[in-house]
Amino acid sequence: MPEIPLVPSHWRFPAHPASVRRARHAVTESLPTVLRPQLGDSLSLLTSELLTNAIRHGACGEDGSLVELVLWSADGHYWLAVSDPGTGTPVPARPGPDCENGRGLLLVESLATAWTVRPRPTRGTSVIAGLSFHQGG
């Protein structure tokens, strides 16, 4: 009989900066306790960067705009998808040394084992990033 996978964790948050802290907490708490020391900090940082970008650049600015997060485990990775209603394609910036912003996707690039941007089937964009993990045993 095949191994039945876990159901992905799924959240929707208002497209507001206050949602970033709530999302970090939700994502970290959904990890198995044994993997939190290995993945918790990196996954929390990925969540912060991707959700902040979604709120700043992908949310429509209209009241009630939501961003969506999905977290799942597959093939030795934890995958995080952050989706917003925007149509733009995020690309890493190359900010100068005096710039205070613009390094979020550079952090994602350095932390994630793999990441990509995908259009959503109906409306919006998803940024998906994966972190590899090693389960003891």
From TrEMBL:
Keywords, sorted A to Z: ATP-binding, Kinase, Nucleotide-binding, Serine/threonine-protein kinase, Transferase
Q: Does the record's keyword annotation contain ATP-binding?
A: yes
**GO terms, molecular function:** ATP binding; protein serine/threonine kinase activity
Q: Name one Pfam family in it.
A: HATPase_c_2
Q: Does the keyword field hold Nucleotide-binding? A: yes
Q: Give the domain of life.
A: Bacteria
The segment(s) forming the Histidine kinase/HSP90-like ATPase domain are 13-127
InterPro entries named among the record's database cross-references: Anti-sigma-factor_SerPK, HATPase_C_sf, HATPase_dom
Xref: PANTHER family: ANTI-SIGMA-F FACTOR RSBW, ANTI-SIGMA-F FACTOR RSBW-RELATED
This chain belongs to which protein, by name? ATP-binding protein
